[in-house]
Fold this sequence. Notes:
3 helices
Amino acid sequence: MRRCGHVICRNLIEQQRLHCGSALSSSAAVIHNIDLDLSSLRHQSSRHAQHMHRTNRTHTTNSKATVAATEDDNASSTIHGTIPMHGKGLKMGQYAQVHRTFTQEDVNLFGRLSGDMNPVHFPPPPITTLSSQTISPTTTTSNNDEKLPIVHGILLSSLFSNIFGNLIPGAIYRHQSLKFHHAVRVNEDVVGRVVVTKLRQINRKGRGSGGGVLCVCDTSVIKMGVVAQKVVDNTTHDGNSNNPHDKSSNEEEKKEIVCISGDAQVWLPDLQL
C-alpha cells in the first residue's frame, strides 16, 4: 500500500509539473503576442507622427504663401496722401488716394456676392460660326477694349471705405452720396480719392452716444483718358522742319476723367482735434 501510495504521489506531482509547464508556455505565448501588438502600435504611431509632421509643414508652407500673396496684393493697393495714420493731426484739405485695377475675376466675385448678374458686367459668350472650308466650328472673340465688361459702380465706390478702414481703423460710415458719370471697364487703372472738406468735434455724454470727430469728404473715382487730339507743329523758327516728312503731328492729350463723384460723412470715434 505504501508503495502504491508513493506511485500515486509521483504521478500526481508529474501531472502538476506538466500542467504548470503548459501554463507557463501559454503565458509566454500571450506575452509574445502582446509584444507584437505593442510593436505594431509603436510603428503605426511613428508613421502617424511622420504624416502629421509632413502635413503641418505643408500647411505652414501654404500659409506662408497665402500671407505672401496677401501682402503682395496689399502692396499693390498702397494708400498715398496727406491724411495721417489713425487720424492724429487730421486737417481740412488733406487727402488720401489708392490705385486699383479691377479684373474680371474681381467683378465675377462681386457679382456672385451681391447677386448683381447684369450682363453688362460679364463677357458675352463667344460667337461660334461654321467655316465653309472646314467642318469644325470657328470661335471668335473681340479684343476691343470698348467691348470689355463694365465694373460695378458700387464695387468702385468701395475704394472710399478701403481708404478710411485702413488709415483710421474703427472709422464708421454715416453717409455716402454717389453720382456715376463715366463707365470703368475691366482692367482699367483707376484712383479712388477722398479730400477732407469739413471736421466737427462731437462731444456727447451718455451711454451709447459716443464722441469723436465727424469728417466730411469729397469722394471721387478717377481714370486717365484721351479727351482731345493736340496738333503739334514740328517746324522751327527758320522754317526748317524737325520731321522731314510732316510739318505737324497729332499727340493724344490725356486728362483725368471723373467717373464717380460724391461726398461722405465718416464718424471717427475717440478722435480729438
